[in-house]
Structure formats: structure tokens, C-alpha cells
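Note on ligand handling. Small-molecule inputs were canonicalized before submission; formal charges were left as drawn, and no protonation-state enumeration was performed. Where a ligand contained multiple stereocentres, the stereochemistry in the source SMILES was retained. For zinc ion, this procedure yielded the string shown in the input block below.
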Amino acid sequence: MSESATYDAATYVDLAPARSGREAATPRRGSRTPPGRQAPRLAAEPSPSEWSGPRSRLAVAIDDLAAIDVDALSDAELRQHLADLRQPLARLTALRASWSASLESRAIAGAPPQQRGSAQRDGRLAFADEHQLTPSEAKRAVEAGKAARQHPETGQAFLAGDLSPEHVRVIDEVLGAVDAEHRDLLEQQLLDLARGRNAVQFGRDARALLVSFSPEDAADAGKRKLARRRVRATDTADGGFAFSGLLYGTAAETARIALDAFTRPDVAGEHRTPDQRAADGFEQLCAAALRTDAAPSQHGARPQVLVVMDAEQLAHHEQDAGTGAAHFVRSGQPVTTTELGPLLDDCHLVRVVLDAERTPIEVSEAVRTVPTGLWRALLVRDGGCTWPGCDAPAAWCDVAHGHTSFARNGRLAPDNAALLCRRHHRRFDSGPWRIEVRGDRVSYQRTDSTEREVRNRSP
Ligand SMILES: [Zn+2]
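Structure output:
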């Protein structure tokens, strides 16, 4: 139906439970028609049978919205239509949370005491499956639904579309920290605070409110939350290392600062996603941690990235004859010498001679590391990563071999070496770049067709 081009979604998709007289007297926040826009009526009312149940009424309303010819709308109209969806969607989300919480309460009440845990788990998994939610999304929804029933004022605001499930969970957490007699007063303040704040901002401000309201209760709540701290790390089938976690308090702040400190903005010509920037930052953070003496030693040796490779594979790589095969000791994951690039420039090599049964019979150390004198010279000359625009300090840097790589018997001398942070070392090694060292200036040039010169940081 073309008339529905100015359809006001909030007028029709009304899913709140029957309103009490008090609520009906005052219009809900956000449901009013914006100034200058008249609330249009549908051209044809659906037939009575279509209004017989909430589900069919909802389907009709959504069909009307889906029939809108988006291409015929101006940007402003489209923006308004999109804005009109916010509240009905929020109300549907709240309703789903509330109903799923009711269902869970029934399942738990109906189960024998020793099976209540599994009844809850099974119910949430089924809910997640049916609604294409992740288990944690389903858990958050059910918890918000439960909290909304425990705190009726919050429940009303939730069903009116004024709060997200995350807001409700924050309110529940804060109210749960104080004595019952203080809850009503605090709930009002929290509802006022929630308006216009996203869940993260609101959570921060709500906890600040709790701290000023009752520091002792806030401290206890903080302690309880600490029990939920976790970091999970697993090897993935495709050779990756996946991790996720949740930290609170000082641990959270320490991690934020450390990751921020090692996450650097893109330089010219670099286009990373925020996730990729954080991943590079995390690698640099870990590399820096292993470089210090702070990491506990094992069997007298500092923890290091260890790689095993046959002598002939290394020779293959060094003669520039192609990619050699190797594997990481800790994980057993295979890796190619190409991927190892930056590590092979500055490393300790240990020669292990094996007998016919591949039992080690002789171990000797051949050092292929950067001499202290050269490191100091580069520290003075380069100061940090020499990649144009990069501000990574020297402590993060590898010594990269210059125009002649170690593989091709490159001499380790200041005119054939430069400091590069791990990410730019990798970029240099894997891209069409040529380094030029002239006196105390290091510059990089592309060797492909564009031949664009990029300059070193100013000293
Ligand atoms: Zn860099």
C-alpha cells in the first residue's frame, strides 16, 4: 500500500500490555509524533479477523512497513522512518525478554530441585536456538526479563522501549547491591540517569551513583563481580590462537592502558580495521613482555618464541631459493620461513645434531643476534621505528636487516640495518620495499611501478 509511505510505526506497532488508567492518561516518552508531522492513518483498516490476535496484527503492521517504497522517500523521510523503528523494536525486544523470563521461571518451578540448573540451561539454549541468538545474548535477554519483573518501574520503562536489556541489567546489579529500603529511591535516580545514555556510559554513571550513595555496598559489589573475571584461550583448528575474557577494576584498567599504549594509529598507506590495529597492538604488547626480564624463566631460560627447522630448510631460505618449512616448539604449529621473516633476522640459532633415530647427540649454539654496539648505534641514530610516520619507540623494535638480508650474508652494520617495529618489519619484509641508509637518514622506496619515495621520521 503506497499510502503507508508516511506510516508512523509507533502508532500501530503497540505491543505493550494493556495500560493502566494512569499510564494511558500520559503519552509515553518517544511515542509522540514529531512536530510538523501529522500522524497519518492507514488508508484501509485491516479486516476484523486480521486483528483477532496480537501476532496477526503485528504481521500486518510489519507487512505495511515492508511495502514502503524506500526509493521514493527523501533522505529525511527515510531517516525518520528508521527512527520510528527504534521504539517498536526496543519494545519487542523487551517483550521477548520478559516472556522468555516467564517461561524460564515456569520451567524451573516445574523441575525437581536437583534438575533446576539443567532446566535453566536447556531452556536458554532452546531460546537461543529459536531466536538465532548466541548463548550469551539469550542469557542477557532472560536476565533482563527477570530483572524487569523484580523492579516494576524499571519493567515499565523497559516495555515502553526506553531501556535496552543492558540498561536493565545495570539497574538490577546496582539495586541488588543496596538494602531493600533504599531501592525505590535509587531506582528513580537510575531511571533518570539512563535517559539518553548508552549502556556503557550508563553503567559507568550508575556505578558512580552507587559509590556516592553507599561506598561500602559499592565495594562489596565490586568484590562479588571480581569472581566473574576470566580469560579463555584456545587453539583453533586453522592454526590460530583464540581468546576472550572479562576483567574488572584494576585488572581491566591495566589491560586497557597496556593495549592502548601498544596500539598505534595507521601511518600513510596503511589501512587496518580497528580489530586489526588492536591485534597488532596485542602482538607488540606480548613481544615487549617477553623482551623484558619480567617474564619468569623456565629451566634458566627466558620464555622465547622457539622454532625448529632442518638445517637444509634454513639453507634453502638463506640461499633465497624459496620458502622453507619449520614449526613452533610450544604449539607444534607448522610455519614457513617466509612467515618467520622478522624473527629470522635477529635470533639465537641452536644447532642440534640428530642421529639416525633422530635423537639429539650434539647441541651447539650459533649466535645470530644483534651486537650490543650496533643496537646502541641504531638507538642513537633511529630512536625508534624508522617507518615513515610510525612513532613506536626503540624498545618495541626489531633490528631489521637492510638492503642485504642476513640470508644473503648481509653484514650487520649500521649502514645495513634499521630499527623497525614488529608490524612495519613484517610490512617491509613482505612488501616491495627497498631501504636506503644515507648517513643518519633511513628512507624506504617502493620497488614496484609507482616508485614512490617515503621518508624517514625527522630526527
Ligand atoms: Zn613502526
